[in-house]
Amino acid sequence: MKLQNQVILSIGSNQGDRLENMVQCIDLIHQKIGTVVKVSNLYETPSWGFASDAFYNGALIIHTHKSAPEVLAEIFQVEHLLGRTRLEHAGYQPRSIDIDIISYNDEIMESEHLHIPHPQMQNRLFVLLPMKDLKTDFIHPVFNKSISELIADCQDTSACEVVMELRRPLGKYNLEQFNYIAIEGNIGAGKTTLASKIAEDFNAKIVLERFADNPFLPKFYQDQSRYAFSLEMSFLADRYQQLSDDLAQFDLFKDFLVADYHIFKSLIFAKVTLPDDEFRLYRKLFEIIYKEMPKPDLYVYLYQNTGRLLENIKNRGRSYEQEIPAEYLDNINRGYLDYIKSHTGLNVLVIDVSDRDFVQNQDDYIFILDEIQKKLG
Questions:
Q1: Is 0.85 surpassed by the pTM of this model?
Q2: Active site residue 260
Q3: Active site residue: 106, 260, 277, 330, which one?
Q4: Which of 81, 278, 292, 326 could make a disulfide contact with 274, Cβ separation 3.0–4.6 Å?
Q5: pLDDT per residue as tens digits for the range 108-132
C-alpha cells in the first residue's frame, strides 16, 4: 500500500524567460508541494485556444501527503511566487507560469475548483506528449485508456517539438550507492514513515518491522517486569527471521534496500527493559545472531525529544502505547546514543528531527535527503 499520493502536473510558460520559469517552477513544487520523482522533456508548443507567444510545456510526477485541495492551494502559491495572477472569468491568457493538476492517484473529483482528471487533457497534445515521457502506468479513470491510446485518439494537430531534457530534482541524490540503509529511532520518531517515503521516491525495496504481530507487546506495557524477557526474545527471533528471509530475496550489491530497523535495536531495548542477569544471557544470544546478519551501509538515527515522541505516540492512537512513560523513552534515546558512540565501526548519521515534520513540510524532508547525501562525500 502506497504511503503517498501520486499526482501528475502539467506546467507551462509563455512569458518572460520561459526556461527559467519552468526550472524555478519545478524546484518550488519540489520544495513546497511534494517530491518531484519524474520530469518530462521540455516541449515548445503553440498557444492553445488563443493567439499569443509559443509555450514551453512539461509534465511532472510528484509524491505528496497532501490532499488534492491542499495541492491546488499550494499550486496557487507557487504560481504567485513566479509572478502569475489568476483572474476569474478572464479566459485564456499569456502567463509566466501555469500549473494544472492532471491526475491525483486514479481518483475522479468534481467540485467548484477541482476537476480531476483534467477535463481537457485528452484534447491537448502538449499535455499528453510530456505525460508519455513520464512512462507512467496511468489509465484514464473515465475513458479507461492509456496515454498512448489517448494520443492516438487525440484530434489536436498542433506542433509539439522537444526542446531539451528538464532536470529532475532527485537527480542530485545518489542514495542508492549505499545499497542498504537502515532507519532507526525511538518509538514514535517516524522511522517507518521516512523509510517508506524514501523507498517510494527512489524506487527502492523496503523491509518494515512486523511490530504489530508480537503478542507480548500489549502485555509488556501493562506489566514490564513480568513480560520483558519474553518480549525481547520474541522480538529478537522475529527480527532475525524476517531480516534473514527478506534480505535473502535481494542482491545487496545491486538492489537499493531501505529498512525501518536493524536487529541491533534489540540489544538497545533489551538493555533498558531487562535486569542485569537476564541481559547478560540475552546479549550472548544476540551476539551469535548479530554476527550472521548483513550490516547496512548506513544507519540513520532519527533523534526526537521525549515531549515530541509522546505527542506522536498519542496522535497515532495505538491503545497499548498510550501509557508508555517518558522515562522509558528517555532511556531508549540514551541507549541508542550510547550504542552509537561506543561502536565506532558503524556508519551512522544522527538527525535531530525534534523540530521537523518531514510529512507535512516538504522542506524538512529535503533537509533529511541532503543530510544523507552528505554522507556520500
A1: yes
A2: yes
A3: 260
A4: 278
A5: 999 988 999 999 999 999 999 999 9
